[in-house]
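Pilot study result, target chain (423 residues):
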Amino acid sequence: MAEMNFYITSLFFMVPTFMVLILFEALVARRKGMKINRSADMISSLSSGATNTLRDGVKFSFAIISYSWLVEHMTVYKLEPVWLAVVIAFIVEDFSGYWMHRLNHRVNILWNRHIIHHSSEEFNLSCALRQSISNTLRFAAIFMIPAALLGVPASIFAILGPLHLFMQFWYHTQLIGKLGLLEYVLVTPSHHRVHHAINPEYIDKNYSQIFIIWDKLFGSFQPELDNVKPVYGTLKQMQTWNPVIINFKHMWHLVKDAWHTERILDKLRIWFMPTGWRPEDVKEKYPLQAITDPKNQVKYNTKNSPQLIAWSWTQLSITFLLMFYFFTIIPSFSATMNYLYVVMLIVHVFSFTATLDHRNYALAAEAVKLILGFSLLYVQNYSWYGLNDVYVYGLVFYFISSFLLTLYFQNGIRRSSPRPNPV
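Predicted structure:
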């Protein structure tokens, strides 16, 4: 509980800080004449961050083995003093992060846990917040055995874990060039631009999170080249702004490939083969479109009206408002009620990002949100997680308005879509 309390408390400071920095980056980029942001892409990135934070808020994850168990059963020496334990813990956290990051890139089934982070075809501070909701099974503790042997308390990692994650935000930018001597020690924006690029020279390089030394030790380091401009995204383009779909799209491809392939061995090994591997029979029958020359990349785009973009930003703002309120009331309600709150917000994100995608099922998702929202009001005697009176009236008005506006934008999209010529 202490870990979650620190994590949630820190979000009330870190999320506004991130938003200010994202705005500052956008203003500087505009002044320099650099196009690094698109509204739909930023909304997708920030929505992804919200879903990840909500998932973590209700602790919906399972550890194959926990660090607390390792400390309890494997400690052979109690490291003193505390400052030294903190230093060792930070190094081990970074070492563990490197190997988990590398595995997430290199193993088919694990790529699904991380693909959301690489799904943006831009590279900016907002894409740093593209974090997964599909990494519910955790096993990073196996890389933290050195700290467990030295008896480093789990409470130190409870504090260092979120801090280590937040420290990875700043280098997701194109505005900062190479940083001299720091390039030899720390992960810099230049290093991380390489990591996010799909160019043949760059792909699957620079997995380090804070100290770049791990890539240099384990043969995965690649400097940014002056004559090779990074192209961002994934080789198999996501073709959606919807972070919920992105989180499970690669897994769905694996499930279909495992079902369609005829060989039993292929049905079993596809999950653990290198990322992108597909059985030969499936590749022939069900080809997937992939980028072969990054220089010819055509970025995913949908033609959205300024009104729809403005409404989507409003929906995103409501997401964060409801999310932060949720964090204040988690201890006061049952796990079931908390899960239902999170499900409603994830359906909400699904709906307005599907609207940006011009998908017909956006209205169905909005209807589910409407029903779920009114059901939650009903079971709480027409209160909303401790809120009453004017707040409830406001929520009722919002749920109805959100459904009607989604219907309005759906009809507008249908009218503006080109119709096929009659035969």
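One observation from the pilot: Confidence is low (pLDDT under 50) at residues 419-423. A full batch analysis is planned for the follow-on phase.
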